[in-house]
Amino acid sequence: MTIQLELPTERFRAYGPRQIDSIASRFGLSDEMRETIRRISLVLPFRVNEYVLTDLIDWDRIPDDPIFQLTFPQHGMLTAADDRELAELAADPANALRLKAAVRDIRGRLNPHPSGQMDLNVPSRGGRPMPGIQHKYRETVLYFPGQGQTCHAYCTYCFRWAQFVGDPELRFAAADSAQLVDYLGEHPEVSDVLVTGGDPMIMSTARLRAHLEPLLRVPTVRTIRIGTKSPAYWPQRFVTDPDADDVLRLFEQVVDGGRQLAVMAHFSHPRELDSDRTRTALRRIRGTGAVIYCQAPLIAHVNDDAATWAQLWRAELAQGAVPYYLFVERDTGPHNYFKVPLARAVAIFAEAYRSLPGLARTVRGPVMSATPGKVVVDGVETTADGRHFRLRMLQARSPALVGRPFRARFSDDAGWLDELELAADTPRDLAEAIRGE
Ligand code: SF4
Fold first, then answer.
1. Can you give the residue ranges of every domain in the chain?
2. pLDDT tens digits, residue range 262-283?
3. Which key words tag this protein in UniProt (predicted)?
4. 201 in contact with ligand 1, CB cutoff 6 A
């Protein structure tokens, strides 16, 4: 049932690199900060909106404020050498072509498509790859609607940052769901479609409806998931936008059609839930019968302590949402800036998890969404043969590997699966999948 509200519409206004000067003067950024933002945003995408600027960021705490770190390019995201080269080239308009080449070169070195997504997961029909579709796990297909490939604001750590920098080679997008529907007809094993981006909720309700309704005619699709950060970055989407009520009716239509609608909400910090608008948005979404699952990566400078996560998961639970995943930041973009080593990640997760009430212990982590599948670090153990991480395949490209435990030699600074040395007793099929053999 849609909860009726009488609140004024707020106009969505997004700001990008062209508005850096006006943001700097409105919020008192130093010249140095302004130039840093300008330089880094030549390489990495930058986008905020009025709500993020005025309601989420605590300007008295910049540059350390977690939401400022979450949305604004920062000193240290590029190597000193790359940063210097950009500064030198950008200083003289005659260098425009060299600057463009340098930007392209730096982006290429930032591992724009981690976990083999461009090659490994794109299905094909009639020998031709299907744009905007990924099929990694047997029962789940990812769908990237073309008009949903942007967001209400950009996270500086986004592992899909390459989608937003305007390079068509680095972009996934499907014009409509016709090809997907054909593919689903040939793959009845697919029960879940994750509509993702970007952020599908950036689309108008009419557009979103055009993408979703055809999926409802595929009987084998039982769950539609929508990956979105809109309840954090623009909760007005569900509250006061002109078509906010329409989108809730669309959600109801999915649920009334006998499908599960899972809103996979991305919350990075408890401050994002400390907002009346967000709480109202979540209440209205839940009122449609959709279930809200929450997930986010563990990120240095944003949320890398146990108290923050415990507070976040409790706040999610208080809103009737399900804490679901704590991810490890992927090896892409400014990874060195945001990286939290696995050893620290597992300690942070364990400390936060221990402090939770049972109903919030639905959360799993730290999880790496790696090439062979989703790998959770269950803990650290010390036995006669040394100190090891205990790991488990939560999800796998090969179903035979799902749920299987394995170990890897403990390391203080490893941050990703491919930096780990597998234990000698790792079963051969697991070892081969993990090594990509
Ligand atoms: S909302 Fe999601 S897709 Fe958009 S920038 Fe943030 S992490 Fe990336």
1. 14-109
2. 999 999 999 999 999 999 999 9
3. 4Fe-4S, Iron, Iron-sulfur, Metal-binding
4. no
